[in-house]
Amino acid sequence: MGAWDGAAVRRRSGGxxxxxxxxxxxxEHQGVALTAETRYLDLIAGSDRWGRPSDGxxxxxxxxxxxxxxxxxxxxxxxxxxxxxxxFGLPATRARENRPTRVRTPHRAYRLLAGPVxxxxxxxxxxxxRCASLWWPRDQSWxxxxxxxxxxxxxxxxxxxIRAVLADPALDAVAxxxxxxxxxxxx
Length: 187
What we know:
The structure is a single chain. By secondary structure, the chain is of the alpha+beta class. It has one domain. 20% of the residues lie in helices and 26% in strands. The protein is built from 5 helices and 11 strands, in the order βββααβαβαβββββαβ. A hairpin with a 4-residue loop joins strand 8 and strand 9. It starts with a strand and ends in an 11-residue tail after the last strand. The model has no long low-confidence stretch (mean pLDDT 83).
């Protein structure tokens, strides 16, 4: 496996009337310079007009777009692993409570599911504002990570995959580096 680059996909915010805004659109209106280090709360500067991005992950459309791009950068698009946070309380995760498919990290527990990358936006059922917290193909050519308490979904992948994600018009993505600060939703 070669060197990886990083990208962050920004979740759209939900504003007044249910309209969803991309971060560059908000930055232009607010007169704020948008960089990889810009935090959402600094971007909106206390305004209620823009709402907040959803906690829990990319929406189904953003997830499907990311999966579509990433499917071209793996030799195993039909063999992808998905970790769904137990805290979502979804029936598909509760049904697996006593099975050995539990994955733990220091502050979270997940249920491990597998399927094609195209299932990313519908696992375990299509939920508009949730995606798997972690997902990666069997060949480990990339990794998607979403913390439920943040506004960004992070991707580690090859240079070519990152360039493709950054260029996709369906995604609001920005290049990040290991030292780029996280953007938690709790301030």
